[in-house]
Amino acid sequence: MLNLKNINVTFGTNHVLKDLSCTVQAxxxxxxxxxxxxxxxxxxxxxxxxxKPDSGTIFLDGADITNLSxxxxxCMVTRLFQNTxxxxxxxxxxxxxxxxxxxxxxxxxxxxxxxxxxxEQLVALLAPxxxxxxSLLKKPMNALSxxxxxxxxxxxxxxxxxxxxxLDEPTxxxxxxxxxxxxxxxxxxxxxxxxxxLLITHDPHIALSIGxxxxxxxxxxxxxxxxxxxxxxxxxxxxxxxxDYQSLQHPH
Length: 252
Description:
This protein has helices at residues 40-48, 70-73, 94-101, 110-114, 119-126, 133-138, 146-158, 176-193, 204-209, 228-231, 236-239, 245-249, and strands at 2-11, 14-24, 29-33, 55-60, 63-64, 77-80, 164-168, 197-200, 213-218, 221-226. It is an alpha/beta fold. It has two domains: 1-76 and 162-252, 3-Layer(aba) Sandwich (Rossmann fold); 88-161, no CATH class. It has a six-stranded mixed sheet, with helices on both faces. A hairpin with a 2-residue loop joins strand 9 (213-218) and strand 10 (221-226). It starts with a strand and ends with a helix.
């Protein structure tokens, strides 16, 4: 479904991704772990089109997308960042953000977007937050807690289901309760819609509790791949050498 073949990415003298090759099957939920500097963010940047590889090829459903820009790939690849402020427009209300997200893969004017979701759809969409929906919809995004904002951002990212969903440490800046709620929402949604998903995390417990595969990214390579059966025999200690605990304690 998603194939990266012999990908090389260099920034100056820093060779970040080194002849990286991998295949993501349709419906996979892959958790990626690795220390800082391993190339995780660059890996996502390359899939999303933010970074063009120096060499190598990227295929999505058999089509070569290597030379497509980030904007051109936006209709196929969606990314949720750990920084909640990058996932929505803080000055716009929740309703406005959701409305525009509903047209994120279509050509539309703002007035079209505002009519994109019915009140009933909005209520159903926001039900997992267990809040007063009418009041919530009127609030600007920057008035919400980080957890609420990230939950809504996840809903926005999946309103128009992408071919590939990239979750870039989405819980790193959240408290444990908010992080758990987001992961539960994501896991349920991904399983229900068989959405091809890649998740970066520094938390070994998250890596072991969610998804069907774990990949270890080290020094620009995917060095280990664990499947469903492999995960049954793993514990957090097996991932210690591949987790940056300083980042886990001090999320950036």
